[in-house]
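Example for tutorial group B:
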């Protein structure tokens, strides 16, 4: 059974949230990715976005790191909170600060997170086409993949909550 075989009724029955906006967009215009677009994506303006196609191994690699998962959530939130029509470039230091604040380990400070992002994580996300990383300016700009991965991670989180609930359904 594929995800497409699951009906709205089945999803509602098991407490899986339905994002109707996401479902009406189906896939990216290229159809090369397995994820539906969780953020507005205008097919006529596709050339303004990085072209990318992630296979399952790429996705597993990207989400295997807790720091990259936090980065995806925080970047998406910072961009949504931004006023303006254009997608902003967010300083890496701002994202690092939020990640450090979210970390329960007291020894994790902003500088450690910042260095880790610069040396290990941003290049992977940039190569995958999930973000655009300006090395010189130390700024990141999300591409549509950030929102797709955010939706995927939220879905995984929801599924884990369902599996861990005593009744086996979302509360």
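The residue assignment follows.
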């Amino acid at each position: 059974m594929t995800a497409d075989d699951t009906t709205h009724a089945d999803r509602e029955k098991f407490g899986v949230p339905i994002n109707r906006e996401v479902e009406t967009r189906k896939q990216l215009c290229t159809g090369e990715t397995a994820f539906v677009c969780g953020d507005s994506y205008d097919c006529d303006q596709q050339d303004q976005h990085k072209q990318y196609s992630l296979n399952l191994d790429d996705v597993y690699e990207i989400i295997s790191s807790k720091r990259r998962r936090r980065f995806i959530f925080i970047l998406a939130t910072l961009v949504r909170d931004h006023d303006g029509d254009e997608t902003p470039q967010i300083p890496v230091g701002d994202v690092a600060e939020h990640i450090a604040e979210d970390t329960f380990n007291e020894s994790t400070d902003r500088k450690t997170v910042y260095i880790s992002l610069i040396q290990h994580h941003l290049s992977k996300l940039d190569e995958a086409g999930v973000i655009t990383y300006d090395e010189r300016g130390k700024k990141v700009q999300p591409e549509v993949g950030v929102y797709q991965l955010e939706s995927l991670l939220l879905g995984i989180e929801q599924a884990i909550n369902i599996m861990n609930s005593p009744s086996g359904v979302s509360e």
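The longest helix spans residues 144-164. Compare this with the pattern of hydrophobic and polar residues in the output above.
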